Amino acid sequence: MTYQKGRIRREDIISAAAVVYGEAGYHGSSLREIAKRVGMSHAGLLYYFPTKEALLAAVLERRDAEDSEREQLAAAPGLGVLRNFVALAEHNVRHPGIVDLYSRLAAEAVAPDHPAHEYFERHYRQARESVIGSFRVLASTGELREGVDPEFAALTFIALMDGLQVQWLTTPGDVDLVGSLRFYLGSLLTVPLDPEA
Amino acid sequence: MTYQKGRIRREDIISAAAVVYGEAGYHGSSLREIAKRVGMSHAGLLYYFPTKEALLAAVLERRDAEDSEREQLAAAPGLGVLRNFVALAEHNVRHPGIVDLYSRLAAEAVAPDHPAHEYFERHYRQARESVIGSFRVLASTGELREGVDPEFAALTFIALMDGLQVQWLTTPGDVDLVGSLRFYLGSLLTVPLDPEA
DNA sequence: CCTACCGATCGGTAGG
DNA sequence: CCTACCGATCGGTAGG
């Protein structure tokens, strides 16, 4: 009971921060703007998160937690992992704010001294490893087209997701996020991604 | 003769701005930092470019001019256009600063009110149209694999280039920019990209 | 949690 | 081109 209100307040702040980061990036966001959206002063916000960076860390932490939860990504390497990524894209299309946040931060964090730089290094490595493993399994069962290198396939698959998101945000009407992903997988696999109806 | 020095000075400022934008993005850059790198005061810089936005416009203008020059991209739709893109990637690998600039600005400019937003809208549309046309030609000559949709192929090709660049900047050792592009084209085409030796 | 404040930095202007 | 300045905004702290 006792810390309940504080915990809710913290969650509200994290949510507001995620939205503002998506709109303006991390460096482009101010504690005052985030605080205003949850109805407090920026000094009040600093009572919950001692620094600007601490708030960013909390946002990234919650994103990871949400991802793990949705994925149950324990999914064994193979088609299931790829289906999970497509499902993630479907989820993202319905929640553009997540795409905003992710794309803005990823691009900003290219700078080695950005506080989210290590987070994204880790993120890319993990994503690639997971996808490489899946393509390797598919190769061994003949579900990957002849001559397709699992490592290139994985690297380009991840890059494609990221590039599509930026392009989708810039010219939304011109980009079919999920369709493009399926198209690409179709060009690599010898079997349909989804079980036939 | 007369305006020679001023023109050179302007070029110096634009070059410095491009570097700083690549490091810190547009919003993250200050006129004072750019001015310092060319050895003048920020007020002096504003003598050459009346506002921060005017300097950004000049940077983008010069980029376009350089692109057109290198491309002679009048290259007729078809394999030549795709080869040009691969050549661009080869050029970029040797000039990471260009990739920094482009990736940072593109991501920032996702925001509709960003001063470079329209520039990137135009940029994406043009790139897509050029590549779509080329894939259509290749389809008509049987050089595109059966069942590959030219529009999806073009959209994903552009997205892949952008996504690869961000990932390359974040984890340079793990990403083969040019190889990934060739891999991708290889999975779409029925003919080699380059004429056999 | 708030008010009030700090030092730093920003883009831009005045006036030469 | 420079010095000097302006108003605005920033993250963070003091003190309650």
Automatic annotation (TrEMBL), chains A, B:
InterPro entries: BetI_C, Homeodomain-like_sf, HTH-type_TetR-like_transc_reg, HTH_TetR, Tet_transcr_reg_TetR-rel_C_sf. Keywords: DNA-binding, Repressor, Transcription, Transcription regulation. Residues 7-67 form the HTH tetR-type domain. The keyword Repressor applies. Pfam families: TetR_C_6, TetR_N. Coiled coil: none annotated. Residues 30-49 bind DNA. It comes from the Bacteria. The keyword rRNA-binding does not apply. This is TetR/AcrR family transcriptional regulator. It comes from Amycolatopsis rhabdoformis.
